[in-house]
């Protein structure tokens, strides 16, 4: 049986998307691959965690994301690095040149010297990795993120009298402002998971937009929000993948998403695609789904077909094949 150690960032109560992905993979590969886990210690420096990671090196080591620098402590071993997105890299270079150079060196330039295979979760990230760092394409594997099995289909027989639109996340790149401008003057209710900025909160009040705010939800509570909503909104300016698209489609809800980057890649023709910089396009997409039940049902059915490649059994098998490939090197 192959032996692999997963290397994670420090334990956390929220924002555990990476950990959730690889726990699914681990559970699915039980009895086929022996998987151990290493978590960074928040009480230690990055240097100390890097040295500690080296002491836990296995036959195969998989850095699961967000702690790329750990590869420096695993030099000489068989290593895999998963890169989920390049969003922080792309935005940091416009904010702080010094921080950008440090991040570039310790998250990418040096770690990439000590890994054998990089897995990416979208062709969008694949292209950026090769463009920015000229990383050999024959050492990159495209493996999508898996959808959690809790997100099961739930038929929507009738829309709410005041249609409910769900939005996941409130960072600037999520484009809450675009949704608020689109919702202005429309009879809709926004379910927002996250912490809107003071400016967005003021706009919600000024525009008189009906809304409910949620935070720190469990998977079960998120599933409830998907079931309760009529439309999922994810027209972000940037995403490394866009898992809420697949989750909403799994539950049977139509999605409005961006016509750019990884979102367009994941959605293809199974969502309503909009320019995220144009609230009028977002508003028009909302109106189309609310007023045309035939279109609504068509988008739902396309979404249910789109989710097949993202089933966790398929994703786990793809990782198993990478481990097998690496074991032969």
From TrEMBL:
Keywords: Transferase. The lineage of its organism: Bacteria, Pseudomonadati, Bacteroidota, Chitinophagia, Chitinophagales. Pfam families: Glyco_transf_4 (PF13439), Glycos_transf_1 (PF00534). InterPro entries: Glyco_trans_1, Glyco_trans_4-like_N. Coiled coil: none annotated. GO terms for molecular function: glycosyltransferase activity. It comes from Flavipsychrobacter stenotrophus. It comes from the Bacteria. This is Glycosyltransferase family 1 protein. The keyword Translocase does not apply. SUPFAM superfamilies: UDP-Glycosyltransferase/glycogen phosphorylase. Residues 160-303 form the Glycosyl transferase family domain.
């Amino acid at each position: 049986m192959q032996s692999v150690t997963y290397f994670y960032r420090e334990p956390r109560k929220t924002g555990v998307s990476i950990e959730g992905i690889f726990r699914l993979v681990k559970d699915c590969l039980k009895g086929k691959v022996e998987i151990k886990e290493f978590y960074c210690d928040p009480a230690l420096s990055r240097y100390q965690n890097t040295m500690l990671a080296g002491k836990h090196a296995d036959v195969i080591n998989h850095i699961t994301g967000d702690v790329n620098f750990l590869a420096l402590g695993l030099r000489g071993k068989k290593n895999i690095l998963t890169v989920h997105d390049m969003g922080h890299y792309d935005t940091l270079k416009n904010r702080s040149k010094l921080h950008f150079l440090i991040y570039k060196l310790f998250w990418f330039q040096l770690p990439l010297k000590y890994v054998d295979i990089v897995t990416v979760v979208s062709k969008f990230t694949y292209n950026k990795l090769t463009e920015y760092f000229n990383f050999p394409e024959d050492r990159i594997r495209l493996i999508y993120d898996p959808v959690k099995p809790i997100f099961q289909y739930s038929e929507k027989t009738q829309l709410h009298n005041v249609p409910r639109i769900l939005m996941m996340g409130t960072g600037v790149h999520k484009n809450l402002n675009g949704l608020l401008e689109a919702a202005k003057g429309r009879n809709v209710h926004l379910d927002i998971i996250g912490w809107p900025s003071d400016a967005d909160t003021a706009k919600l009040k000024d525009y008189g937009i009906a809304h409910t705010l949620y935070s720190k939800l469990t998977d079960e509570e998120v599933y409830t929000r998907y079931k309760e909503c009529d439309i999922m909104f994810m027209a972000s300016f940037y995403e490394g993948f866009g898992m809420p698209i697949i989750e909403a489609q799994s539950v049977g809800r139509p999605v409005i998403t961006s016509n750019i980057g990884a979102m367009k890649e994941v959605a293809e023709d199974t969502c309503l695609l909009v320019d995220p910089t144009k609230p009028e396009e977002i508003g028009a997409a909302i109106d189309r789904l609310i007023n045309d039940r035939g279109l609504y049902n068509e988008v739902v059915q396309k979404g249910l077909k789109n989710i097949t490649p993202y089933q966790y059994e398929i994703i786990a098998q793809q990782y198993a094949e990478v481990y097998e490939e690496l074991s032969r090197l």
